[in-house]
Design goal:
0% strand, 186 residues, mainly alpha, 6 helices, transmembrane, Mntp/YtaF, transport
């Protein structure tokens, strides 16, 4: 693999990581409105970042096992998963009345981080099918989700609700585009 291919893969994975992190960002915006202390903001971001490393890692491992058995249709499976995930994110961003029922403290923080990172499991599954670089992918997923969670929480303290659902819709749109790219080679 040449340097330009490596750079291209890193850019692609970074865009996917940002798209996944937009979900954490938009949820962080909403959660930031409950006026958390900065120490809580720090721990929430770290926890969500850790879960965005663990979940795609599990997905990548399972995706690689699937690709061994279904190599002929692996790209279609991965593309379809990204399409479904992106569509789900876009649709859920326009549903009104979504409230976080779990407080981001203790066990509630674990439940919250797990729910925010479930989509990264699916993306990890797709990446495992395509054989993406595991270390680069999980680092980028964890880093961007952590940073975007912090930004969302801190911004949520300032601006209330003017961007929340649009951030998740943008992230879903990016995943939809990647799913289409995988299904329709052009």
């Amino acid at each position: 693999m040449g340097i330009t291919e490596l750079i291209g893969e890193i850019i692609t994975l970074s865009i996917m990581a940002i798209a996944l992190g937009m979900d954490a960002f938009s949820l962080g915006l909403g959660m930031g409105m409950i006026r958390l202390r900065l120490k809580q903001v720090f721990y929430i971001g770290i926890t969500i970042g850790i879960f965005h490393v663990i979940m795609p890692l599990l997905g990548i491992g399972l995706g690689r096992m699937i690709s061994v058995h279904f190599s002929g249709i692996a790209s279609y499976i991965g593309g379809a998963l990204l399409l479904i995930l992106g569509l789900q994110m876009v649709v859920s961003s326009f549903k009104s009345g979504q409230q976080t029922l779990v407080t981001p403290i203790g066990f509630g923080l674990i439940i919250f981080a797990l729910s925010v990172s479930l989509d990264s499991f699916s993306v990890g599954l797709s990446l495992g099918i395509f054989g993406a670089r595991t270390a680069v992918a999980i680092f980028l997923f964890g880093f961007f989700s952590m940073v975007l969670t912090w930004v969302g929480l801190l911004l949520g303290r300032k601006v209330q609700t003017w961007l929340g659902s649009y951030g998740e819709a943008l992230g879903g749109s990016i995943l939809l585009a990647f799913g289409l790219k995988l299904l329709l080679p052009f």
